[in-house]
Every structure is written in C-alpha cells, then in structure tokens.
Amino acid sequence: MDDQAHAGRTLWNCLHGWWTMLPKDKRSLAAADAAIRRARKEIDWLGALPAQAAQAVLKTYFQAWRNCWEGRADAPRFKARIRTVMSVDIPQGRDLNITRVHRRWGMVNIPKVGRVRFRWTKDLPVGKRATGENRITGARLVKDALGWHIAFRVQTLEPRPEPHQGPEVGIDAGVNLPLALSDGNHRDHGRPPRLPDGTADRDKWPNPREKARLLRLERRAARRRQHRTRGEKTSRRLRHTYDQIKQLRAGATRRAVDWQHKTTTAIAERYGTVVVEALTLTNMVKSARGTLEEPGRKVAQKAGLNRSISQEAWGRTVTMLTYKTARYGGTLHKVPAPGTSLRCSACGVTTPGSREGQAVFVCKNPDCGWSGNADHNAARNVLHLYRMGHALVPAAGRAVVRRPRGVKPAPAR
Predict the structure, then answer these.
(1) What is the pLDDT of residues 49-71, one digit of tens each?
(2) For residue 204, what pLDDT is reported?
(3) Strand, coil or helix: what is 398?
(4) pLDDT of residue 319
(5) Which of 79, 127, 211, 382 is least enclosed, having the fewest CB within 10 Å?
(6) DSSP 8-state assignment for residue 173
C-alpha cells in the first residue's frame, strides 16, 4: 500500500510538471491520459499503482484545476513527500468484493494487494442489500500515524427531508466551554478528569497522562536533534520518537472528530434553525510577536490561546453543522461576530468591563446587573442578532457569473 501511495503522489507531481510546461493549446485530457499510460510503461515502479487508481489521479487533478478556474480553490501544487497525506483511490466498487466475517470485522479486496481485513463500524449495502439505488461505488485508502484506513463511497437514494419544526438556537464556540447554546443546553467534552493538584482539566484531547507522555517525547526529540548536523540523515531513534508523537496526536484528533460528529448530529436532530458566528479563524490565530520596531505584548499567552483555538477546530464543527442541518431539514445561518461577547443579553447594553474573565460576564449597567457564563451570554446575543434580521447572506446563495478572460466589465449606468 505504501508503494501505491508513493506512486500516486509521484504521478500527480509528474502530471503537474507536464501540465505547467506544455503550451495552453496542447493541454487536453486525452494528451494527459496518453502521457500517463506511457509513463507507467517506461517507469517500472509507477506500475505498482493500478490503472484505475492512476485514472482517478488524473480526474482529481483536472477537478482541482476546474475548482481553481471557478474560484473555489487555489491552483494545484506539487505534493511533498513529508507533508502530503498518503492515499490511494479505488474508483470501481465492483472490484472490492466486500464480505462480512462477523459482527466486528469484514474483508475487502484491494487491487494488487489482495484480501484485507477491516473493522466493520457501519452497515454497508453488500450482498442482497445492494441495489441500483443503494450500492458502494468505490473506496479510498488513507494512511495516518495509526495506520491505514478505508472509507467507502456509498450511493443511496434518500427522500427530501421535511422542514424541521424544531426550535431556534444560537451557538457560541469557545475555549473554556466548547459549544455554548443559547437555551443553556451546553456541549462540553465530557466530565473533566481531575489532576493530581485537585484542579479540573477540561482539555480532553489529549488527557493529562497523554500530555505528560507527549511532553517527555518532545523533550527526547529535542535532545536527539542536538546531535544531528545540518544536512545529516535523521537517525532511526529520532524517527521512532517522531512516530510516537504522531501516534499520540493522531489518537487525540480521532477522539476530537468523534466528539464533533456526535455533538453536531445531536444538535441537527434537535434544532430546526442553528445560528453561529461568522468567524475569520485565520485572523484569530495570528501571532502577537509583532516586529522589531513594535514588539507585541503577552506573546506566550496569545500563543497558548492560538493553540487552544486550533485544537477546538471550530471551522470543522461549522462544516459538520452545515451539511447535517440540511440532512435533517434544518437551516444554518451566520451572523456578524463583533460585539457578541461584550453586549449584555439581558438588557442589550454594552458596558465596558462587563467581561470580567474568560468565563465570567457581569453586566456593569446599574439598571441590570445580570451575571452568568460569558459564552452563554454570547450565544444568546448570536440568536438575538438572527431574530433581528442580521443574518449574513451565504456566498452560495448569490448568483455568481464568471466573466470570460479579457472581457472588461460594463460601466455602471
């Protein structure tokens, strides 16, 4: 499987180099297909990748350029050996020949590998359950620090969901409280484990024991890097330490994604309208170091906050809520984020100093004095903005017309 993944990555890079060097009038899908067939015959180790998987690389590459031309993504780039996720595509579902061994395990046929056992985590339409409207159309193999994983593509016909009649809810994503809901039904990572000093650690990924082991491994890697000169090959012991660090982080990421899936599914099933903030995460996690002329303040504190924000993966949570609310017949809306954490949700007045801490909000308005969790207060403000008609129009809802190359826009009349 590693040979196939490396061959697929190399094929992408060769295809990218061939595409960028050719004149525009000679670029075509047929010419790229002929170049791939010739390369697989002339280079032996490229033949480790099945022909159908090579065609999938070609289709993926063309789709990447199509996304770039339509403004949905950046231009395709070379795939580095270290930073690229190893993956192999199996575009034909009939080649898989999936069978269920027993309740926990199944068997699948991988081209040029053979029969491989996999963990059966969800019911699949195989055997008599497979029909023309509900069948497996392919699969994708992905490797991370914990090993190889397989994801099946299932084509199924689902009826259009009825409009969700559930209540409205505003959600504020935070660090102290992962998801604060406007009705008080907050979503936390679970019961926080107790540390030796008696305090609670709300960060479940990784847990305190794994954090201590991760710190030891990072210090060990730092010591072993001191004996490595520039340009020298990484030692086997240092690579083993890096692998242990990757395994710890991959396990924590898997638990985080599992919690996000379960939480977003429960929210989509219960609420008909979900309102979140339109956050620009790239600006929120910028460093506070500043420049030599104007150095920043509290750089270490801001770095810790950036790590916590990145670990919570707010963007991934919003993405899951977007398609899950649509699956259950609900809708998701975004409202402007400025001022939601400073305004009092009880009286509607923004008073300086009301946000006393990361988790405490006490209204300084003499006529109010409301106090509570700061994230809960922000969630109520998020829902209030939606009810007042301040929801942002999504980009997908606007009619976007791409102007042909070389055509100037018409002047306004």
Answers:
(1) 888 999 999 999 999 999 998 88
(2) 59
(3) coil
(4) 92
(5) 127
(6) E
Cis, peptide link before residue 206, omega less than 30° from 0 = yes
Contacts of 317 (CB under 8 A, 6+ apart): 173, 179, 260, 263, 264
Task: Specify the pLDDT at position 156.
Answer: 87
For residues 9 and 79, is the Cβ–Cβ distance under 8 A? yes
Single out the residue of 213, 217, 214 nearest to residue 238, CA to CA.
217
Which amino acid makes up residue 84? T
* Whole-angstrom distance, CA of residue 163 vs CA of residue 299: 48
Helix (H) or strand (E) holding 382: helix 374-387
Q: Across the strands, what pairs with 361? A: 355, 372
Q: Which residues of the chain have pLDDT under 70?
A: 190-205, 393-413
Cα separation, 271 vs 179, in Å, equals 14
Report the distance separating Cα 88 and Cα 9, nearest Å. Answer: 9
Residue 107 in contact with residue 117, Cβ under 8 Å? yes
Per DSSP bridges, beta strands 105-110 and 114-119 are antiparallel
Distance of CA 147 to the CA centre of its chain: 19
In contact, 31 and 24? CB cutoff 8 Å = no
- Phi, then psi, of 117 in degrees rounded to 5: -90, 140
> Hunting for tokens 């996000």 — which residue is that?
260
Q: Kindly report the backbone phi and psi dihedral angles of residue 10, in degrees, each rounded to the nearest multiple of 5, phi listed first.
A: -65, -40
pLDDT at 191: 52
Provide the token pair at 377: 């207060």
